Sequence to fold (656 residues):
Amino acid sequence: MRSYGNVGHSVKSARLDKAIRVARIHRQALNTRLPIRQASIDALDAAVQGIMRMGADQFVIQFYNEIRRDPHNAEILDALTPPEWTRLQETMHRHLIQLMDPHQPDDAIAQWAYQAGQTHALVGLEQGQFVAAFTVYQKAVKALINSRRWLAPKRWAVQSFLDQRIVRELRAELQGFDDTRRQWWDALRQTFHVVAHEPLDLATLWSVVARSLQQAPGVIGVQIWQPQGCEGRWECLAASGSLPVSVQDFRALWDIDSKDGAWAAWWDQTMVALDRHVEAESNPIRSVCYVPLLDMANSPAAVLVLYGQYPHQWQNPDVKNGLELLALLTRQSWPSLVPGLEAQVLGTNRRDLARGHWEWRYQPIVDIASDRPIKWEQLARWRTEAGTLLAPSEFLPLMGLADHRELLAQGILALQHDASRLPQAKVSINVVPELLSDAAGQVILERAMTRFARGTVVLELLESGRIDDKGWQFVRALVKAGAQLALDDFGAGYANFDRLMEEPWAWVKFDRSFWRRIAEDPGRWIPTLGEMVNFVKTLGIPVIGEGIERSEHLAVAQALGMEAGQGFLWGRPESVEFWASHSVSPASPAPGGLWGLVSWHWVSERTLADASLCLWKADGSVPDEILEVHQAWHESGGSAVAEKRWKQAIYQSLKA
Fold:
């Protein structure tokens, strides 16, 4: 037993001594920066290079598979063209072999990794996933090393060398990531400061903005463009960078592969990033980003165009957020840009109507008593490139402040030519409320007042928006100068009683939506409309009924005391050439049917007249049951029971 114990003890001692010697070698290897290079670099070179030759392809696959685990990274890698993806894999394959080559200087490895980090940051790959990818790569290399039948000192020394290289690689790549994003934000912060604080004129301001952004990494050049008309012409407001000749004229790039980019940014008011798949040494632009710059009304004022040297570099969330923030900050700079915009057609429907031209139609506003036109309303129509004619309801909701400036300016130019050809020279033009407080809109309106005889043009203020204090101040100045103002679409939108009481209006036009309400419940809405008309008339303001298309509409307008009407009953909006050779269709007298009876009944109720006044305007289309209930109402002197039966009879008639 003792002999066995001595043998076991001696075996254990031998193993312990060997382990101590191995640990010392391992510790020495770990504490030495390049342990094997000093001792046996050739042996290490052969061992490591042999591993890389065996597993490099598999390492690249594992590396990018780990990066793809992030959905954002996977989307970017999947969007690469086949040549780009092949080139990326080949570059990483070559770099991994260089990374494990003991002959490659550490500084060279770090420089390459730093540049790789910059590239990965610019294309928008997520930083955190690279740490996990390098961890997977490190484990794969160690597994391959452990599969070799090497002595422990050699295996440990090789692993120590690989660990050092991977740590240096990862540190340099993450530094490239961080520096690139920091440089981007430095450029953006400088731009933010210029936009928010520098007291520069507009042209100088945009030049400084372009130069500031051009300092950001990966940016080849920057331009700021603005469309001129709707034929695809653009004007460059500012430019910076070394741009190829082919893109110095914006239309050249636009015609190649970015046809929808700038127009989409302009019409859709959203940032658009496109990749260019045409590669040439003379044109290094690999991606283009179009950022809409908005005015104070959140409408497009210009397009910022950035040219990048990497694909997908504008997909980076940090870059996108920064550019969107810049677009918001530029809003304050655009109101002073107006005078140069007066003669431009800046837009209608944001995409489908990118090309076309304005056409003008005129609809008569008729004196109800005489059927004679007392003035005309100018109405805009948009003729698309395909020949389709679009009504205001199809493009007005999509127009911004700059668009309305141009619409007003073009309408005034057309009116100078058309007014003398209309039978009645007085014409009303529509004005959106936002133009009243806009410096450019005020200039356009002031010039319009000087181009026409006093009282010739009536400005109809639309119901689409509020009028601030600055706008009301300008309105009062217009009225003092002799302008006539009409309140359009009273009863809809912002055309309410508050606005009615604000100024001495020349006309108040009631919205066509009242006819829809009356059709649903004439017993309720005809008296309501009558009270509103009566209130406006007590203010001394004449009333126009809009949307009069049927005889029932005219009967209500006549009964309630509207002075004028506008609608298809007298004529549709037509060109000035049409009205030069055609007269307004006569519409009176108007059989009113049930609507006429209810309207005149409300009048007789207010004036205490007998049933004959109501029946005088009624026609044979009123059912006998209604006439009997109506007669009973008058005989009872309008008792509560008779009133209830009267309302029920009207309701039942509608159901029938």
